[in-house]
Structure formats: structure tokens, C-alpha cells
Design a protein that fits this description.
By secondary structure, this protein is α+β, with helices and mostly antiparallel strands. It has helices at about 55-65, 100-105, 120-135; strands at about 5-20, 20-25, 30-35, 35-40, 70-75, 85-90, 110. Helix 2 packs parallel to helix 3.
């Protein structure tokens, strides 16, 4: 299977936590999955809800929850973060990278750490510029 990095697993999304995190079963164990390359507004729970957090969560639920997705790690990055979440790129059954779609629709920001050179970094940056220019999602209320 080809993707934006090294193939890790195919899973069914069990529960969307927010616009950039979900839970899935991997080898019979429930794992938290953090989608690489994006950061969506908080939707409540452990942190205070932010503008567009609820919308980003609904978007993620519609696109991911109950669906089968393919997970890919990014070369050179760890597989887990400091919160023990699996860090991966998420490719939906239709072949679309969820992070790119979420950013293009204004449901997430591009989020690339300084030390990272994500394989889809340029694509995410272009998608964010387009979303801002077209005032999609969270950018709809942005001032010039």
C-alpha cells in the first residue's frame, strides 16, 4: 500500500475525540491516534472549547468515524508522542489524506514542528493558503 510515509496499519475509526484525534482498535487494543500535520481548534473535554472546535469535530466524525482508514508513519518522526498517541498520516478509503482535506476546508491549521519535514508539508501549506483566500471554515470570519 502506498501513502505519504511508511504503511503502519489499516483500522476502523472507533470514536472521534476532536478534529485531529480519534480512537481506534489496533491488534485488539484501543489506541489514541493523533493526525500528523494538523491542529484543529479544541472542542472541549480536557481543554476549553475554541471557536470552530465543535465544527471541526463534526467534520471529523462525518469523514472518519466508523470508517476504515490507512495509517502511515512519517519517516524520521517517532510513532508515538509524549501523550502516548500514535502519530500518523491518515488516508481515507477514497485515497484522500484527511489532514489535507481538513486544512483545505478550514477545519484545521497546518501544524508542522520546526524539526519536522513532513512528506506532505508543502501540500498542507498550499491547502491552508487556499482555505484562507477562499474564507473556508474557520477562516470565514477572518479580517483582511
Amino acid at each position: 500500500m502506498e501513502g505519504p510515509g511508511d504503511f503502519y496499519a489499516t483500522v476502523e475509526v472507533h470514536e472521534v475525540v476532536d478534529g485531529d484525534t480519534f480512537r481506534a482498535f489496533l491488534d485488539g487494543e484501543k489506541v489514541r491516534v493523533r493526525i500528523m500535520g494538523i491542529n484543529s481548534p479544541e472542542s472541549g473535554g480536557y481543554r476549553e472549547e475554541e471557536d470552530w472546535g465543535a465544527e471541526a469535530k463534526v467534520f471529523a466524525k462525518k469523514k472518519l468515524e466508523g470508517r476504515t482508514v490507512h495509517l502511515f508513519t512519517d519517516p524520521g518522526d517517532p510513532a508515538y508522542d509524549q501523550y502516548d498517541r500514535l502519530l500518523v498520516h491518515v488516508v481515507m478509503e477514497n485515497g484522500m489524506n484527511y489532514a489535507v482535506l481538513a486544512v483545505a476546508e478550514g477545519m484545521a491549521h497546518t501544524y508542522i514542528l520546526r524539526h519536522q519535514e513532513l512528506t506532505i508539508g508543502d501540500t498542507l501549506r498550499k491547502a491552508e493558503r487556499l482555505a484562507k483566500a477562499e474564507r473556508r471554515g474557520m477562516w470565514s470570519a477572518a479580517e483582511d
